[in-house]
């Protein structure tokens, strides 16, 4: 009948089954592959109806959390916030971002018995340490490594550590430089480069602001046994 709206088709059952399974077993590769397949399915069938996609996303969230309340990895408050974000999302792209952020937080909360703040800080620190000499390294790189959106990582990191990512990265670079400068034979320009600074003069300014002495002054103090 002309003009009649046809109901949206049901998403592939295997994706509705495999996505929660991948999340619950912690398989990032499987989650990425299946999540990509689901949203590609929406695109291929030209499904842009946010209401339909929203219901699919909520259905997946409920499936992921389908377990005894005592085993819930995230609080009722956190899940309620996600529900509100999902209900407010107006496009497929926004809904996908909400879902990926939900899964990222789910994984963070499931890791051992460590407090959430320590879990996030340790994961970010591991990525930063692996790229400490990378001059162009940024929050976007950490977000990509942790499979979380940059904006959400920025918000979560600030909320759980009280620091901005830039403050944290600077502190990590300074601590690395501090360790390298313990060797009086090491040139300041080399330390700057290994700590992720292209300009040794700017590095010296940052180091003095952080430690209240220049790199050269620190090396002299270390050599004299006073640092």
Automatic annotation (TrEMBL):
PANTHER family: ARAC-FAMILY TRANSCRIPTIONAL REGULATOR, HTH-TYPE TRANSCRIPTIONAL REGULATOR EXSA. One of its GO terms (molecular function) is sequence-specific DNA binding. It comes from the Bacteria. It holds the Pfam family HTH_18. Residues 122-221 form the HTH araC/xylS-type domain. This is HTH araC/xylS-type domain-containing protein. The keyword Transport does not apply. It comes from Ruthenibacterium lactatiformans. The keyword Lipid metabolism does not apply. Keywords: DNA-binding, Transcription, Transcription regulation. Gene3D superfamilies: Homeodomain-like.
């Amino acid at each position: 009948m002309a003009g009649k709206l046809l109901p949206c088709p049901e998403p592939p059952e295997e994706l509705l089954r495999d996505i929660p399974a991948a999340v619950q077993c912690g398989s990032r590769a499987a989650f990425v592959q299946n999540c990509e397949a689901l949203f590609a399915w929406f695109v291929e069938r030209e499904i842009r109806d946010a209401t339909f996609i929203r219901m699919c996303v909520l259905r997946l969230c409920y499936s992921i959390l389908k377990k005894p309340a005592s085993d819930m990895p995230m609080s009722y408050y956190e899940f309620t916030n996600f529900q509100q974000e999902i209900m407010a999302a107006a496009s497929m792209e926004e809904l996908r971002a909400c879902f990926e952020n939900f899964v990222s937080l789910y994984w963070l909360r499931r890791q051992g018995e460590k407090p959430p703040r320590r879990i996030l800080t340790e994961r970010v620190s591991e990525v930063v340490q692996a790229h400490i000499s990378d001059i162009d390294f940024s929050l976007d790189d950490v977000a990509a490594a942790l499979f979380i959106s940059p904006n959400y990582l920025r918000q979560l990191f600030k909320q759980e550590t009280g620091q901005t990512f830039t403050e944290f990265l600077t502190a990590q670079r300074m601590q690395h430089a501090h360790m390298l400068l313990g060797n009086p034979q090491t040139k300041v320009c080399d330390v700057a480069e290994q700590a992720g600074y292209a300009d040794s003069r700017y590095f010296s300014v940052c180091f003095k602001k952080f430690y209240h002495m220049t790199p050269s002054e620190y090396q002299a103090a270390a050599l004299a046994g006073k640092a």
